[in-house]
User: Fold this.
Amino acid sequence: MLLDAKLTPPPVRPGIVPRSALVERIRDHPARVVTMVAPPGYGKSTLLRQVAESSAGSVAWVSLDSTDNDPTVFVSSVAAAIDRSGRRSDTVMVPNVRPMAGAAVEALARLVGSVMEPRTPSLLALDDLHEVSHPEVLDAITWLAEHLPGGLRLVVTSRAMPGLPLPRLRARGQLLEIGLRDLAFDAAEVGRILHDAGLDLPRDSIAELTDRCEGWPAAVHLASLSLRTDATRPLARWPGDDRFLAEYVRSEMLDQLDPSDRRFLRQVSVLDRMNGSLADAVTRSHGGSATLARLARANQFLVPLDGGGDWYRCHHLLREVLAAERDVDPPRELATLRRRASEWHQGNGDIELAVEYAHDAGDLEQVAALLERNALQIHRRGQIATLDRWFDWFDDVALLEQHPPLALLGSMVFALVGRTTRAERWADAAAAGTWSGERLPDGSTDIDGWRSMLEGMLCRRGLAVMRADAERSLRLIHPASALRGMAMLLEGWIHLLDDQSNLADQVLANSVDVSIETGGLPAAITALGFRASLAARRGDWPAASVHHETGVRLIAEHRFETYSTSALVTAVGARLAMRRGHAEQARRDLGALQRMRPMLTAAVPVLSTTVRMEMARAHLATGDIGGARTVLRETADILIQRPSLGILPMQHAALARQVAVGAGAPGATTLTTAELRLLAYLPSHLTFREIAARLFVSPNTVKTQAIAVYGKLGVSSRGGAIEAAVHAGLLDASLVRLPDDLMHTG
Assistant:
């Protein structure tokens, strides 16, 4: 598996120089964070492997790649690495990464906090940090660097060092920096390379070669190969720069290869990683495994990625040279190779890489087809950042109108994470586009079923149009479609808004059954939330409890704790907890709901308003008038945007009258959604100015919001706000272990 290669240190290859002095320096240094930063070819990964082998405890290893730019994927990779480092697989749970600011930091904090036992890995190795650029992932790594638990050390390699708070770590004496000068070979190490190559050069010649190559390991290795071929070659030919090395790879190595091997390498060099089966698929040949193993043994430019000899990558120098060769090939040949890679990954269940290679091939039609079949599944895995990046490729009205099914799915995802404007824009493009296909990925033959279901969910045109949308979607969506349960949920909403609660409950019950049967679990959980809410409103608390418990079980089984579709189950749970006298459980449920509130917008108004009104009832049960007023004000804002929602305005008005009497004291439950967004960033390393840039607001706005947050939480500092938010259930308890210089500054 490709994941195995990511989590396995690269095997030690013949001829590798032991960096004993560097390994001892790193091992004996008290720093908790070690960085190895240098250009390609300086042996960073090799040194990291040697450090890992010298570690007295277990090692969790992750070779980062572009897929780790998604916070969910990154946290999952770290969790899998910790799992492999010696813990049982049933004890390491991958925390769900919410599609919200600060979620990756919180998830990593929970992960680290869950494994602080004797078998905790002593070293976490992150190789190739330069592959990661997503701000949320860098925030998580920064948090980890500043909050390493006792006994755990973080060692990272990178061509550059983005994101990490090096000055702060350096000032505290917590950082050891290994750079280009440290990684460069000295004369003794160059001499060993030459000796292992069967060359016994005079000491002054070794010193000259070391000087000309500036200790660059890649250049030294090439020099040894060249001199072994021709010992009379003048050392002056070795300036050790990129251009010369590329020319050497071309003239002295590739030109010596059999033409079939050279063609094989040129074709597979389009791949980031490869095994024999993938190489065969791309080259349309056979025997790829044997060819890869033979070429890896023959030179240093195919790098094994796992101990089993299954996965390899091309050395960066080889890829650069071969890329230049491919530039003279017809563009369609390169696109064909990447399209074959996409097809192989699709056939082997790796949709992410299938999409990436299809995009690299310039095949947006294939990308769209892959997303249409898999977008909802990827959303359910929590990979919102990945979907965001892919959807950005199509974020143009003309493109979206060419791909209405994709526009509809994108709009649905945006609606579920609270991005109202984008959800509406994509829905409009889907409505304007023309679909000429014969069958949608779910088996439906008429796209109007999807369009109607989405419009019904957005509720933009009033109750009468919603009713027509519900009827049309049920008529046109395939009975076995995973969207069928959502269409039935929409029908249940219509009856709810018509104040036909008994009929609504029957339809919602059918929605639960159909959603579970077809795999539409988020719709099943949402329908259970509405059934529990209906039961609570009619005073049938045993039924409310049954529906709530069923929803909680599905949420836990499928890791949907932080999805907006789970919010109503949680809200009813808070009310049930108060009835049972479990005030602490009610507080935890309400804290979880506070963190979900920014996702509950006018994009899904029936769900968003119902959740808030259930929250208001729970707040009233606890005597929290201020919290009830806050969520009811937000409900009023949604009802202004979506004014024709049947009985919901009347229910809101009745609740508003209840909170009109009595004083509402400021507190954690009175934080606005804007203040909650800011709160998520407070545990990070970011200054207020940097937080403002993330939130696309002015620094003054952030400062004003922070003052409001402090006032409502009854504190006077950033650290105090974090501790109070943890106590209120708005932040995870793992986040309170912050350094003093962050806890008391803005």
User: Anything to note?
Assistant: The radius of gyration is 29 Å. Residues 87-95, 738-746 have pLDDT under 50 and may be disordered. DSSP finds 39 helices and seven strands in the chain. Residues 191 and 426 are 63 Å apart (CA to CA).
